[in-house]
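A.,

Following up on our hallway conversation. Structure tokens first:
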């Protein structure tokens, strides 16, 4: 008999499809995430504890061993670990003052790839995604339609779109419409 005290969590965006001849939309694999806040004096210790250099410049990101840190503000980062590591514990081992909140179940991500990826995103996002302005590794907190997203350029034609789980169906739908337009 099933244990009824445990909630069954369905993966966001399971079974969704979208894209076009020039854009592929793929729900990202589950990952652990923390919203990290810390002052400049804690960056070095946190970088060591997390195993990558926390970026300190606008639009900066850093990646190492399946872990990515995205700069969101002078004292704020989104850290994503695709191996499911306990990021709160890792940050806690830094021995420095910080705030780390596990947002693994709040967020999900969509990978947008292909030659029309930027066009698909720009259907609902006003950000300039030209390579000159938004190069590989660039990131920002922005909007897609009416939803806040965190956007990271993984490659010339590949983006990671992070959004709140509760907005994921809406964000995926906006991207699917943009993909259709990009493929036309």
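Then the amino acids I'd put at each of the 184 positions:
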């Amino acid at each position: 008999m099933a244990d009824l005290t445990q909630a069954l969590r369905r993966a966001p965006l399971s079974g969704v499809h979208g894209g076009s001849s020039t854009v592929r939309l793929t729900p990202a694999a589950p990952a652990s995430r923390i919203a990290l806040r810390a002052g400049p004096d804690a960056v070095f210790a946190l970088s060591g504890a997390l195993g990558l250099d926390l970026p300190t410049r606008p639009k900066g990101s850093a990646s190492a061993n399946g872990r990515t840190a995205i700069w969101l503000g002078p004292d704020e980062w989104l850290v994503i670990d695709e191996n499911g590591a306990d990021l709160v514990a890792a940050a806690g081992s830094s021995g420095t003052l910080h705030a780390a909140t596990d947002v693994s179940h709040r967020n999900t991500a969509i990978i947008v790839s292909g030659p029309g990826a930027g066009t698909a995103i720009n259907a609902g996002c006003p950000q300039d995604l030209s390579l000159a302005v938004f190069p590989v590794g660039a990131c920002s907190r922005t909007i897609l339609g009416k939803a806040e997203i965190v956007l990271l350029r993984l490659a010339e034609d590949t983006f990671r779109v992070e959004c709140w789980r509760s907005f994921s169906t809406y964000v995926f739908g906006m991207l699917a419409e943009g993909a259709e337009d990009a493929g036309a």
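The radius of gyration is 17 Å. Curious whether your intuition agrees with the design.

B.
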